[in-house]
Amino acid sequence: MSPPTQIFLDDQDEGLSTETSHPAFVAVSPEWFYDQGDPRSPFGGDDGYDTLRDLEEWYAAGGDDEHAPGRVAALLGDWDLVPEEVWGRDSVGVTAWLDQDESHVRYLHGEVNARIAGALGQFKIIGWIHPALRSWAEEALAMAGLLEVWEGTAFNVEPDEVARRRRAAMAEILAAAPEPVTS
């Protein structure tokens, strides 16, 4: 993988903007992607926003594309909220883990948001997504669907149709994002 020729970083005082995003990302990202106050947007909750900012700082300090998944993995490792093996479990196993402690749902939501923000954040910054980050984000979108089902049962809440549509839109954008540029 070659180093990015140009990186796009947000102005911390101005927030998310199409003007500080890679043109390939801007071409496919809906307006709600830039809403920092919307927890359903990739960078709207604390976890997604913090992941994007961490990636931006990492790239600004000379981070390279090949090691971006390691940067996101290190961030999640620092949080140490969800055991890695939870990501490999089937729905019964994930449900059992969620049922163990009421804080687990918040922890898993945080990692879901961070994994999605890691992939879409790299796309926003450099214009493509590393295959590992793409895979993690796809797993996270599936996990978000499982979380919605679990929450519906555990908390007796109706499905969030807006969240479903937004997950579908994020999945389409992940699938359409360019592959890495190789030298």
Automatic annotation (TrEMBL):
| Protein name (record) | Uncharacterized protein YfeS
Query: Per the UniProt entry, what species is this protein from, by scientific name?
Result: Stackebrandtia endophytica
